[in-house]
């Protein structure tokens, strides 16, 4: 109370700045969720905005597309690495392409085999384990028993097979080894380092056919393409990896053949026709021996054909009609001819056999040209006389026919392919833009520009750069 006795009214309390309570959010800091990534939460951002001042934004300058100090480029590391290269591009002005194409084909039909059976005039293996019909000579085996015939130097060992170690297909290590081989060959002065690219023409995971393009090529003054195809390093590589290597120049004409010429016996068909005729009268052994020697180039083809024809004297002249049911076209022959026709190619069969079956096969497969020999027959007895009429289709005649057909069809020889297996096919194979030895005799394999030792004639299409997908589109 006051002195006069009236009650004293208490002053109204004032909440000063020191007495202000913190915000609700500040009072409950312990309930904030922890920030594991180190970034501020929304609460911290809101509190920070209360004491911060917002500066006016900088004027925006339109970007002209040219980096400058005013508009520096923003560099973001995406983790991707891309390099522009010109391996397969148009060469620079004033220069020409210097590339080769190597088609590597794994020989799936020729698995590795151990050598355990040897000819009687050669030294036996130290530890023969079993018997087999193989007649091949194993590495380092003495060729003869007679000391006088013993060579002055032992034969070099065959290369160690590698495909069974690294995969029965064209493995990455196989390609690397091949490129290392090519890089060891001398190139032109001033050439750049070896560059390459490849395409799997069948299965990309385990390919059996790979097309490899590489540049620069070996110096032609040191090693021509023809010599490279026969180089010992290539031969040994094929043995090591169980592959065929077909080397070609990378030209536009390689991909667009216009005429393909085939031998018939053991090429378009699996058999030798003259041997089938001989089997019908029991002289197959004599005729087969002469045929084998002629195909290996040991005998003159014309003389051997006349000699074999004499053995067929007295055979029923209708024998060729009966043999139609026996003839077996080579695997892939029908599909190959169909694909070539869809590509616009002309086809021909030039046979050292006989025209009745050759013409019948050409009509059956849809081949455009057919040439072969004619056997004389006696119209009275309707039997063969053993004489060959007209010009014999030998090696020289096959070459002439190839040139005649190419001229008639107006096809450059660079776009002509010749396929055969015997020595009588070598001349036409050398005349063509590419000669292909298909499961051929050894002498032909050594001389031909390309070798195919697979089970199907369709492999020929891969030499033009076609993939399996493209091949299937052509033969459907």
Describe this structure as you would to a colleague.
- With 476 residues, the chain is α/β, with parallel strands linked by helices.
- The chain is built from 16 helices and eleven strands.
- The chain has helices at residues 24-27, 42-51, 163-166, 172-183, 225-229, 232-241, 273-279, 284-295, 301-310, 319-322, 333-342, 355-365, 395-408, 426-431, 442-447, 468-475, and strands at 100-106, 195-200, 209-215, 243-249, 259-262, 346-354, 369-378, 383-389, 416-420, 434-438, 450-452.
- It has a seven-stranded mixed β-sheet, sandwiched between helices. Strands 2-3-1-4 form a four-stranded antiparallel β-sheet.
- A hairpin with an 8-residue loop joins strand 2 and strand 3.
- Helix 7 (273-279) packs antiparallel against helix 8 (284-295) and helix 8 runs antiparallel to helix 9 (301-310).
- The longest helix has 14 residues, at 395-408.
Brief description of this entry?
With 476 residues, this protein is α/β, with parallel strands linked by helices. Helices cover 28% and strands 15% of the residues. It starts with 23 loop residues before the first helix and ends with a helix.
Largest sheet: 7 strands, mixed
Mean pLDDT: 81
Q: What is the strand arrangement across the widest sheet? A: 8-7-6-5-9-10-11
Structural class: alpha/beta
Shape: elongated
Task: Report the total helices.
Answer: 16
The amount of helix comes to 25-40%
Stretches where pLDDT is under 50 for at least 5 consecutive residues are 112-144
Output the radius of gyration: 40 Å
Order of helices and strands: HHEHHEEHHEEHHHHHEHEEHEHEHEH
- Beta-strand level of the residues, as a percent range? 5-15%
Instruction: Give the terminus-to-terminus CA distance.
Output: 120 Å
* Tally of DSSP β-strands: 11
């Amino acid at each position: 109370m006051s002195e006069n006795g009236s009650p004293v009214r208490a002053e109204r309390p004032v909440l000063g700045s020191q007495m202000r309570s913190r915000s609700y959010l500040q009072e409950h800091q312990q309930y904030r969720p922890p920030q594991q990534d180190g970034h501020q939460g929304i609460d911290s951002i809101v509190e920070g905005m209360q004491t911060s001042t917002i500066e006016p934004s900088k004027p925006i300058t339109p970007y002209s597309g040219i980096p400058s100090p005013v508009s520096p480029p923003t560099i973001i590391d995406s983790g991707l690495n891309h390099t522009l290269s010109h391996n397969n591009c148009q060469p620079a002005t004033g220069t020409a392409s210097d590339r080769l194409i190597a088609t590597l084909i794994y020989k799936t039909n020729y698995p590795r085999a151990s050598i355990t059976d040897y000819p009687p005039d050669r030294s036996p293996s130290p530890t023969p384990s079993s018997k087999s019909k193989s007649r091949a000579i194993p590495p380092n085996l003495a060729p003869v028993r007679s000391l006088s015939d013993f060579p002055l130097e032992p034969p070099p060992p065959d290369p160690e097979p590698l495909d069974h170690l690294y995969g029965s297909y064209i493995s990455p290590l196989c390609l690397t080894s091949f490129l290392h081989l090519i890089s060891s060959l001398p190139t032109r002065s001033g050439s750049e380092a070896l560059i390459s690219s490849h395409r799997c023409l069948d299965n990309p995971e385990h390919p059996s056919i790979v097309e490899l393009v590489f540049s620069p090529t070996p110096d032609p003054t040191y090693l021509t393409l023809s010599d490279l195809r026969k180089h010992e390093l290539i031969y040994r590589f094929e043995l090591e990896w169980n592959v065929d290597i077909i080397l070609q120049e990378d030209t536009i004409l390689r991909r667009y053949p216009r005429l393909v010429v085939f031998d018939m016996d053991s090429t378009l068909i699996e058999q030798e026709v003259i041997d089938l005729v001989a089997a019908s009268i029991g002289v197959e052994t004599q005729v087969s021996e002469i045929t084998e020697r002629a195909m290996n180039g040991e005998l003159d083809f014309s003389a051997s054909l006349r000699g074999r024809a004499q053995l067929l004297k007295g055979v029923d002249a209708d024998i060729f009609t009966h043999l139609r049911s026996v003839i077996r076209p080579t695997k892939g022959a029908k599909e190959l001819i169909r694909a070539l026709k869809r590509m616009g190619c002309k086809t021909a069969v030039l046979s050292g056999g006989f025209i009745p079956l050759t013409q019948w096969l050409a009509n059956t497969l849809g081949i455009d040209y057919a040439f072969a020999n004619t056997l004389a027959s006696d119209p009275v007895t309707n039997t063969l006389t053993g004489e060959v009429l007209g010009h014999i289709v030998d090696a020289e005649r096959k070459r002439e026919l190839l040139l005649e057909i190419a001229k008639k069809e107006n096809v450059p020889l660079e776009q002509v392919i010749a396929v055969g297996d015997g020595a009588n096919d070598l001349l036409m194979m050398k005349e063509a833009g590419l000669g292909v030895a298909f499961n051929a005799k050894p002498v032909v394999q050594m001389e031909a520009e390309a070798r195919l030792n697979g089970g199907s004639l369709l492999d020929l299409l891969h030499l033009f750069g076609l993939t399996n997908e493209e091949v299937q589109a052509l033969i459907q």
